[in-house]
């Protein structure tokens, strides 16, 4: 045969394919003139399919216009097989080598949609979709498991069924915290069912379950062995908490899943025994020496983090970096991907392999992990946010003599929540000292702010409602009323800088609504915290950013906002520049920017962003806050009037000389705005121990030169500094020299290890670890 004549004779190509002469058909196809007509496209698609050239076959099928049902099903199959070959080679091989099962056939439901039919040994036919419509069955599953699906619980698909639910799971993932992804296990013991579904649905592409890594596939008769081994090899893979059965052998699948769970439990118990055995030898004297400056070896610090909190990730990494710089070995336990989870076995394996001398975590106590960390293993919790899991007396009473709690407000946690004072170590938020270039020029934005507080007022209100959804209706009325009051306050160009002011507004709303007190004292405290953090803080920051936008416009300067979500804000979208990665990228941005803005409702020298920015070499203009001045003023007064040892307001009143008492009372009255978490002098003492405040010196040198209270004040500072690089450099150099030695990660954590050593040395011999009173 002369292939060159085939362009007029597609029947020859069809005959070669029908005869199984596929190599000859390849030669014939190569001679066909392009573009190919529909009959040749169909033949080429079939030829590529038979030679298992799935991508080529899919391309040909895709070019066929007006595909009938059978052609479209074959197109889906080759598209899916091409994807499986690349992304799921083990599944691909199982499907390729399966002998086929005539007991499972394709059919159509009464509504015309394709379904799987199973014919048993007795000849009885069973549809894998219950009812008369696969879409109705899908909606029923969604209703039954809606809560679990919306929460992103780990799901085992026990049988693929007709494939509609699998397709929906891939196309419509739940919206979870940050980049958290729902974990889904696709389990099907019968490969023929999968092959049938590959013809019914297109599972390919980034939005399909073949390519998405959050799906794990276990197909064929040996699925259970593969599933068990996968979870044993990767302990960050979670066991399913929800199962959806769509298989003839669903009961058998469930039993095997339970058996895998039992294997994991046995492994966890074995790991627990090994960890307990190691930790039983951790004696206080040896640990005290290990954390001292004269160490027999490098201490090992295991740090717990999570990829589902950007702030915690960075803080833990900076902590690990600092521990390494002061002579420790470190290991960070964190989920490897968005579809992994921390688990007891994963943490215990890290404990067994790394054998830490200290565990370090942010915002979580040992007791929250149940029995994961043995009692003799020192555990360090650094409180950076006053979260509900930390701000209660049960949390305080859970702290043992091998627990160390780091906080910038130790007195508050001791008095309000019964944390044992012996275990509290004063530590504020810290800054990372980067490697700075020797020279740089600020040629980037004129004014810039880095913040994720990009919610609109309406969105912030909605998040606040959601946070308290399900509480007493009076609480929800109160939240609604105070939210409107706050919004009106900021619309009138006023603001609320402190928790005390927010509490006052809340109480005013309560009186206006004539409500009985809907919350106890603890509940009211949490509500104030929520309103301040979720709504007031956003309004406070955006008020100052509005000033900055206006000032930049008036002066012809470039203003930029970096962070998530600003592009969706109607007031600030024009200034949105997208997020900036922490570390070198943020440090470079801070140096390039002439005037960085710090606009949070807190004392500026307590904020990591400001400290890290100054350490990087950046110059900041700061929205003023009462705590910037009052804490320094009160500290200075106590040291000048013979009450330097006073720990509380009452002690100061007793110690101060009579001539100074009227001034003290006046100062304490002015300081009441800081008293949300306890008395003023207790806070000042905490900040002195943290080295935020230094008697006789400014917390932040030349701070008064960079503070503004309103739009006019900001404009004046911008006009003064925007073109004066020398003045900016002089101020930053002085600020950096003062703060690096006090408030860097390295120096802060060095102090922590020293205090842990001293506390352990005082533990004394005892038959068993005692609970702290």
Q: Could you walk me through the main structural features you see in this protein, from its secondary elements to its overall organization?
A:
This protein has 773 residues and is of the alpha/beta class. Helix content is 49%, strand content 10%. It has a six-stranded parallel sheet with strand order 9-8-10-11-12-13, sandwiched between helices.
Topology:
Elements (H helix, E strand, L loop, with lengths): L9 H9 L3 H9 L7 H13 L3 H9 L6 H19 L1 H9 L6 E5 L5 E6 L5 E3 L6 H11 L1 H5 L4 E4 L5 H8 L12 E5 L2 H10 L14 E5 L3 H11 L8 E4 L4 H30 L4 H7 L9 E5 L5 H16 L3 E5 L10 H11 L3 E5 L16 E4 L10 H5 L5 E5 L2 H8 L6 E3 L20 E4 L6 H11 L5 H19 L7 H14 L8 H35 L3 E4 L21 H9 L2 E4 L9 H9 L3 E4 L2 H15 L8 H7 L5 H10 L9 H11 L16 E2 L2 H11 L3 H19 L1 H17 L12
Parallel strand pairs: 4-5, 4-7, 5-6, 8-9, 8-10, 10-11, 11-12, 12-13, 14-15, 14-16, 16-17, 17-18
Antiparallel strand pairs: 1-2, 2-3
Short synopsis of the structure:
The protein is an alpha/beta fold. 49% of the residues lie in helices and 10% in strands.
Instruction: State the low-pLDDT regions, or none.
Output: 1-8, 765-773
Mean residue pLDDT: 92
Adjacency order of strands in the biggest sheet = 9-8-10-11-12-13
Helix content: 40-55%
Euclidean distance between termini CA atoms? 97 Å
Number of helices: 30
Q: Give the strand tally.
A: 18
Roughly what fraction of the amino acids lie in strands?
A: 5-15%
Shape, principal axes of CA atoms? elongated
Main sheet: strands, sense, barrel: 6 strands, parallel
- What is the rounded Rg? 33 Å
Give the oligomeric state.
single chain
| Structural class designation | alpha/beta
